[in-house]
Every structure is written in C-alpha cells, then in structure tokens.
Amino acid sequence: MDADFSISLPRQAYTVAVARDVLGTLLVRAGVCGDCVDDILLAVSEACANAIDHGGPARDYRVEAEMGGRWCELRISHTGRAPDPVALAERFTTDHTPLPGLEAESGRGILLMRYLMDEVAFEGEPRTTVLLRKRLTACDGPPEESAADQVPAQRYALM
C-alpha cells in the first residue's frame, strides 16, 4: 500500500499521543505487523518529544509518513531552534554513544530511535528534521487455516 500522511501539531506534550494514535491506525490498516508498529510508534514518540522539548520558539511541529511497497519513511520536523549540528550528528552516527546515567531523566531518545529503525538521520535547514526509515519484509508465517469465506490478511514487518 502506498500512503502519504502529514499532520501538524502544537508543541504540547499531549500531542505525542495524538501522533501515535493517528500513525498507529495508518500502519495497522496498511497491514504492518504489531511488533513493528510498536517499534515505529516508540521511535516516533521519542522524535516528537524531542521536537516538543527542543523546538522552541516554534509553536508547532510536523509528523509526516510515506509508505511505499517496500519501505516506510517518517519525518518529524519543526521550524524552531536548530541544535548544534556537530554534536547531534555525533549522537546519530557514533556506534558507541554512552548511555546517560541512571539518575538522568532524558538522553535516551536518539539511542532508542537508532536501535528501533533501519536508518536515522538529522537534517538542519530549513526545518529541523529527524528522518526515520524502515524496510518492509513479510513477517508473519503462512496464514493459519481459516474459514473458506475469509480472505487471509498479509502482514508486513518493517525490518
């Protein structure tokens, strides 16, 4: 299924749940398997939380998704203050990024995104954007025997 999705939300904490609900519905209806939907929604939630926490003075942020036959690409962006590109690039590309201390309340989002997605990138201008990509592969085994009048659903994993 090819699909494009875009939503603009105010930079308020409650909107992370809105983005998750709308995007989750799109992914489930597209036939993406449950485990992969969970991974994508967690990665997107982290990116949205970062846009809310660090996107000032922008008043809103945008969540966009494109699904093609073999891939899913997500972009979470805002027009607010751009972070230091060198420090951010290092966090996105370094294989041995240290974990924050146990007492730290933040600092794990980028690590989670990198673990859950196939590709994670940062784009600076004109919008500060986190790019998340997953590849589609068949995840569920052969469909269980079903009644003759039911059509088996093909589900896909984003690997």
From TrEMBL:
<keyword id="KW-0723">Serine/threonine-protein kinase</keyword>
<keyword id="KW-0418">Kinase</keyword>
<dbReference type="Pfam" id="PF13581">
    <property type="entry name" value="HATPase_c_2"/>
</dbReference>
<dbReference type="GO" id="GO:0004674">
    <property type="term" value="F:protein serine/threonine kinase activity"/>
</dbReference>
<dbReference type="InterPro" id="IPR050267">
    <property type="entry name" value="Anti-sigma-factor_SerPK"/>
</dbReference>
<dbReference type="InterPro" id="IPR003594">
    <property type="entry name" value="HATPase_dom"/>
</dbReference>
<protein>
    <submittedName>
        <fullName>Anti-sigma regulatory factor, serine/threonine protein kinase</fullName>
    </submittedName>
</protein>
<keyword id="KW-0808">Transferase</keyword>
<feature type="domain" description="Histidine kinase/HSP90-like ATPase">
    <location>
        <begin position="14"/>
        <end position="134"/>
    </location>
</feature>
<dbReference type="InterPro" id="IPR036890">
    <property type="entry name" value="HATPase_C_sf"/>
</dbReference>
